[in-house]
Amino acid sequence: MRMLLAFFVAVLLLSDPFESAREKMVRTQIAARDVSDSATLRAMRTVQRHRFVPESWRDAAYDDRPLPIGYGQTISQPYIVAYMTELVKPQRGHRVLEIGTGSGYQAAVLAEIVDSVFTIEIITELAKPAADLLKSLGYGNAVVKNADGYYGWKEKGPFDAIVVTAAAEHIPPPLVEQLKDDGKMIIPVGTPFFVQTLTLVEKRGKDISTKSLIPVRFVPFTRGK
Q: Catalytic site residues?
């Protein structure tokens, strides 16, 4: 009987050896910091973050910090991913635009909740692997485009929410235009390589409101030539 139990435990660990680390991440890094949206917490428990980091960093995949993914880019700290997700209030039926695909992790978290995720990555060497990974993991509702995210993705809009994962010196007007009425955008605003301010943008008809939230550090919003 003990041998049979040990066998099933081994099979479970082999299927997802990081499950306990992911559960601890959600409990101690995210829920403990007052992220309470049930859909966001469920997505953070589900998405295998270790699949979105370089193999050399997999042992640190569930640590409370950003990690390098190459080309001067990072995968954001788990808490920040969850916090930004919760702020835009994603729901079934929503169409969401993400600027800055990176490894695809934030897109996967959103894709667990909403109907459609359209995500833009300007660095070609990151865009294709992210698209392939998202597809291989079953996120067929997440579509990656290799382009300058400043201009958004007009033909796929308007969007219920926009999540920007790179620091911009100002809020890009095309992104505001592509928000639906009552839509929300979360974006780090400030000088690259310094502390920025995570900013919530809300659109109600012609009225645009912004709210400064917490200090953050994001990689710069890369533009095309």
A: 76
